[in-house]
Q: What sequence folds into this?
C-alpha cells in the first residue's frame, strides 16, 4: 500500500509539474531543448562551407571547359558565373576573418551577459586596426594603383568611425563610467582630427604650400590613440601590461608613418613648367619630354619626374626607403589591432587563469601578427601572378616616353645637332 501511495504521489507531482509548464516549454522543439547548441559561429561556418563548394564547383567547371569543348555551355561560360566566382573569392577573406574571431569568442565565452558591449567594442575597433594595417601594406606594394592619396581615404574612415564611436559607445542618459569617458574621448579625437585631415586633403587647404602631399594628421591621430591606450588604467597588472604594449606599438607606428611622409618625394605636378615647353607641347604632341626627363601633358603639368619615377612593386609617389617605413607602420598597426581585440575584460580574465605571464600572452599575438603578414604576402603574390599585369601601375604609353636623365652638355648628339649635321658637312666640303 505504501509503495502504491508513493507511486501515486509521484504521478500527482509530475502531473502538477506538467500543469505548471507553459506551452512553449511543453512543446519546445528548439535546438537547445535537445542539447544542440546553436551559435553564429556554427551558422557562419555552414554558410562558408557551401560558399566554398559553390566557388570550387564553378572554378573547376570553367577550368575544364577551357580544354574540353564538349563541356562548354553558353550560360556557364558567360559573365554571370565568372563574376559570381570572383566575388565569392573576395568575400571569403572578410567572412573567414569574422569566423575566426567568433570562434575565439565562443571558446573563451567572452561576450556573454554584461560583457557583450565591451567585447563587441574591442573586437570591432581592434579588427578595424588589423584591416587598416593589412590594406595599407597592400597599398604599398601597388595593389591599388588607382589610389594616389591614401591619407584622403584614411581621413574619411577616421571621421566616420569617430562619429560612431562618440555617439554609440555610451548609452546617453545613464551614468558615465571610466570606460565610457575613455572611448568617447577617442571618438572626439578621431572626429575632429579626421575633419581637419579632410580639410588638408581638399582644394581649400590653406597649408598647401607648406604641407603639399604630406598630410600628417592620420599619423598624429595614431600616435595620440596609442598614448591614450598606453595610459588606460586597469584593475590588474596583466591587462595593464597588455594595454601599455599595444599603445606603444601604435605610437611607434605613428612615428614610422611620419618618417615615411618626410621621405616621400615632393610631387612634380605642382612644379612650374617653363613657358617654352608649354608652347612646344601645344604645337607638337600631347606628351613631351624635357631635358630633365619629366613628362608633361598638354596642359603643362608634369606627370612624372626624377622624384616620381615609378618603381616596380611600389606604389606611385613612394620610394623604397619611404615604403620601408610605411611597412613598419602597417605591421605595428596589425599587431596593435590583434592585441586590442584580445584586451577586453572577459578574455583577459581567461588569459590570467591559463597564461602565467603577460609577456607570453603578448608574444602569442606577435606571432599572429607575423602570420598575418605572411598570409597577406602570399595572397598578394598569388593575385599578382594570376593577373599577369605590370606592377608599376604606369601606362605603357607614358612609361615608354621616359628617358634616362643625362645633362644636356653630356649628351652625344641632340636633336638640333642631328638636323644640322648634313648642312655642316656640305659647308665643309665646299670649303675644301
A:
Amino acid at each position: 500500500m505504501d509503495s502504491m501511495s508513493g507511486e501515486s504521489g509521484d504521478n500527482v507531482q509530475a502531473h502538477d509539474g506538467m500543469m505548471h509548464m507553459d506551452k512553449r516549454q511543453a512543446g519546445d522543439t528548439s535546438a537547445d531543448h535537445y542539447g544542440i547548441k546553436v551559435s553564429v559561429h556554427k551558422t557562419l561556418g555552414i554558410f562558408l562551407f557551401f560558399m566554398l563548394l559553390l566557388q570550387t564547383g564553378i572554378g573547376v567547371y570553367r577550368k575544364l571547359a577551357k580544354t574540353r569543348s564538349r563541356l562548354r555551355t553558353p550560360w556557364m561560360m558567360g559573365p554571370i558565373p565568372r563574376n559570381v566566382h570572383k566575388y565569392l573569392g573576395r568575400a571569403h577573406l572578410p567572412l573567414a576573418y569574422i569566423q575566426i574571431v567568433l570562434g575565439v569568442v565562443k571558446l573563451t565565452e567572452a561576450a556573454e551577459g554584461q560583457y557583450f558591449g565591451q567585447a563587441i567594442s574591442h573586437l570591432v575597433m581592434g579588427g578595424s586596426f588589423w584591416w587598416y594595417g593589412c590594406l595599407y601594406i597592400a597599398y604599398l606594394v601597388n595593389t591599388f594603383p588607382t589610389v594616389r592619396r591614401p591619407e584622403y581615404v584614411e581621413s574619411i574612415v577616421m571621421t566616420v568611425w569617430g562619429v560612431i564611436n562618440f555617439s554609440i559607445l555610451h548609452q546617453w542618459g545613464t551614468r558615465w563610467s571610466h570606460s565610457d569617458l575613455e572611448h568617447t574621448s577617442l571618438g572626439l579625437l578621431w572626429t575632429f582630427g579626421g575633419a581637419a585631415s579632410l580639410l588638408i586633403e581638399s582644394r581649400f587647404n590653406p597649408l598647401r604650400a607648406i604641407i603639399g602631399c604630406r598630410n600628417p594628421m592620420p599619423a598624429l591621430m595614431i600616435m595620440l590613440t596609442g598614448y591614450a591606450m598606453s595610459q588606460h588604467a586597469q584593475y590588474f597588472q596583466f591587462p595593464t601590461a597588455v594595454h601599455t604594449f599595444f599603445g606603444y606599438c601604435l605610437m611607434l607606428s605613428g612615428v614610422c608613418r611620419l618618417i615615411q611622409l618626410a621621405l616621400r618625394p615632393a610631387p612634380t605636378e605642382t612644379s612650374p613648367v617653363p613657358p617654352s615647353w608649354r608652347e612646344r607641347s601645344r604645337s607638337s604632341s600631347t606628351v613631351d619630354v624635357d631635358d630633365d626627363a619629366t613628362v608633361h601633358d598638354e596642359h603643362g603639368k608634369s606627370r612624372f619626374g626624377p622624384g616620381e619615377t615609378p618603381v616596380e612593386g611600389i606604389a606611385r609617389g613612394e620610394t623604397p626607403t619611404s615604403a620601408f617605413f610605411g611597412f613598419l607602420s602597417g605591421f605595428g598597426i596589425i599587431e596593435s589591432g590583434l592585441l586590442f581585440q584580445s584586451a577586453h575584460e572577459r578574455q583577459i580574465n581567461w588569459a590570467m587563469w591559463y597564461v602565467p605571464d603577460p609577456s607570453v600572452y603578448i608574444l602569442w599575438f606577435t606571432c599572429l601578427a607575423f602570420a598575418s603578414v605572411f598570409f597577406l604576402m602570399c595572397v598578394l603574390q598569388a593575385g599578382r601572378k594570376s593577373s599577369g599585369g605590370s606592377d608599376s601601375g604606369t601606362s605603357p604609353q607614358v612609361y615608354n616616353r621616359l628617358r634616362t636623365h643625362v645633362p644636356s652638355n653630356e649628351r652625344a648628339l641632340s636633336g638640333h645637332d642631328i638636323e644640322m649635321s648634313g648642312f655642316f658637312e656640305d659647308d665643309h666640303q665646299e670649303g675644301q
In short: The first helix runs from residue 2 to 20. The chain is about 65% helix and 0% strand. Residues 268-307 form one domain.
